Amino acid sequence: MEVQGGIDPRSGFCSSNSIFYSKRKPLSLPPNYSLDATTFISSQPHHGNIAFIDASTGRQFTYPQLWRAVDSVTSSLSTMGIRKGDVILLLSPNSIYFPIVCLSVISLGAIITTTNPLNTSREIAKQIADSKPVLAFTTPQLLSKITGASPSLPVILMDSSSSTNTLERMMEKEPESTRVIERINQDDTATLLYSSGTTGPSKGVVSSHKNLIAMVQIILDRFSHSKGETFICTVPMFHIYGLAVFATGLLALGSTIVVLSKFEMHDLLSSIQNFRASFLPLVPPILVAMLNNADAIKTKYDLSSLHTVLSGGAPLSKEVTEGFIEKYGNVKILQGYGLTESSGVGSSTESLQESRRYGTAGLVSSSTEAMIVDTQTGRPLSVNQTGELWLRGPTIMKGYFSNEEATMSTINSEGWLRTGDICYIDSDGFLFVVDRLKELIKYKGYQVPPAELEALLLTHPAILDVAVIPFPDKEVGQYPMAYVVRKPGSNISQTQVMDFVAQQVAPYKKIRKVAFISSIPKNPSGKILRKDLIALASSKL
């Protein structure tokens, strides 16, 4: 049934303009006057006490200590001559100091750019050459990567060593009451995050204060009934998922965030037990590992405080969702979908009932519009039709840094972000991500989604993990090749893998080559690094 303006209340689809409108309550965003994201977050009313706890040392910051530290560091940076528009590089594992650096830089109107601690000096040098930071924050353990990448870049160390140029010293200073305060507009740039580059070179994503404020408001609305809860942080803070949730969003709620410097299963489970954590944001591979080892885990750790798991990065199957709920009792699983280009926001499930629409990434986020577009004709599609997902709304990036060509090919003149994801929206408004557009395998003109074949192969009892990639072929263009991780004790053969798929798919989707591997390479958010596997396959040609 269609109602006002042709919008179907069930799906959110408007027949007159082919736009899917969010079924969530619209955001109440502040007027577009001078307001920075840090001020917006710190001014939210809440009764939170402890902001951050270091899981390994027990060191903690209360909310008053956090905001005092941010004020001091902001003041110190200003005294050093850091001004609006300057880029500051942050190279650090997760730590309770990471958000202090981010919030301080953003409150000055300067721009924070983060990088992966696993990156090599060569990779960091490329980001430095592109973003041109005037200052870097890092840890003593990672200092050589910065000096190797850019010997002349000034560095501040994030530890309590005797050196005078440390973050600790900056935090101890009295904030200057006379510092230069520059007017910051919500449209000014706040962050410069480099996309994971799963399908090509990494690009700098330029996000504004308005983008971050809208993202924080979505998190506030999503967890409005969860004030004062304790969250475990293992997802990397340099990535949009970690930055959005832990370094900014949850602070507006007054949550307590227990920070682990890196993912290690024992540390994760011990922290849930020791700090009585209730929320666990993670990526699917960790969730699957917790499911596969559930009996041993429950014998050794008390996870009774845990009531919600937040999963992002890839859809969860019915087997995984129900298996986890069965093993961990009263834990509900919430899922979400977002990109660096959309400030980590796009869609989410907000109840177990919504997550039980298996495979969904949830309903489109508040104040966000979606369109499904035919990849061949560019024609907008309707309910239950599969095409590329386009998104528009207050969290969509300003563009790619110093890359007008890439920006214009990704955001059109009407503000639509082409996500590169193949999706459909069902008759109840739920989004389903089918595959990456750039990852579709082109076999004799047919398009083969690797994710579909991966989901099928994961149902085989002898297969632990799998990735499907395009393998070049002169006659057919490309054909699907599978990299398979066998379950312990399994000796499934190449022929058995190919036969298993061939019995269940159209001929053009058949797997025509199989290689066995000890583990599938994935990025921090759980996405398969197909380009690494494509390079591996090419090296054996």
TrEMBL record:
Keywords: ATP-binding, Ligase, Membrane, Nucleotide-binding, Transmembrane, Transmembrane helix. Gene3D superfamilies: 3.30.300.30, N-terminal domain of ligase-like (3.40.50.12780). Residues 452-527 form the AMP-binding enzyme C-terminal domain. GO terms for molecular function: ATP binding; CoA-ligase activity. GO terms for cellular component: peroxisome. The chain crosses the membrane at residues 87-112, 238-260. InterPro entries: AMP-bd_C, AMP-bd_C_sf, AMP-binding_CS, AMP-dep_synth/lig_dom, ANL_N_sf. It comes from the Eukaryota. Residues 46-401 form the AMP-dependent synthetase/ligase domain. Belongs to the ATP-dependent AMP-binding enzyme family. This is 4-coumarate--CoA ligase.
